[in-house]
Amino acid sequence: QVQLVESGGGLVQAGGSLRLSCAVSGGMYNIGWYRQGPGKEREFVAGISWGGAITRYEDSVKGRFAISRDNAKSTVYLQMNSLKVEDTAIYYCNRHPPLPVWGQGTQVTVSS
Questions:
Q1: How many beta carbons lie within 10 A of that of residue 96, not counting itself?
Q2: What are phi and psi of 85, to 5 degrees?
Q3: Which residues, including other chains, have CB under 8 Å from residue 39's CB and lie 6 or more apart?
Q4: Is the pLDDT of residue 2 over 90?
Q5: Could you report how far apart the first and last alpha carbons of the chain are, in Å?
């Protein structure tokens, strides 16, 4: 049974960077990062295959965010650069496609 725990969120100014981490246990899976902004539906942000060779990004984060994984550490990362106010959201990791159960996520707040 997969378990995923997000960390690394925080408050950052627009233009800044953050790196999120997702600790994965219970197997090797394709993993996705998702986010839910204030008053918005949860949306896909980025995904990575179990081996790390294939990545996908939502259009608004292409060129700014990078997903990677270190399977030796059972961790998936989301490097977020050039952050914008509209990136403010709770960020979640989950299998990709996602399971119906979500963790607590990690809050990312980008100030202007």
A1: 19
A2: -55, -35
A3: none
A4: no
A5: 40
CA distance 38 to 31: 23
Using CA atoms, how far residue 96 sits from 31, 56, 110, in Å, is: 5, 11, 26
Q: Is the pLDDT of residue 1 over 90?
A: no
Q: Which amino acid is at 59?
A: D
Contacts 24+ apart (CB under 8 A), 46-49: 46/78, 47/96, 48/76, 48/96
Tell me the two tokens of residue 88.
Answer: 């403010």
pLDDT of residue 33: 98
Q: Single out the residue of 56, 53, 58 nearest to residue 43, CA to CA.
A: 58
Number of residues assigned to the chain: 112
pLDDT in tens, 34-67: 999 999 999 999 999 999 999 999 999 999 999 9
Question: Three-state secondary structure along 79-106?
Answer: EECCCCHHHCEEEEEEECCCCCCCCCCE
How is residue 5 written in tokens?
């725990």
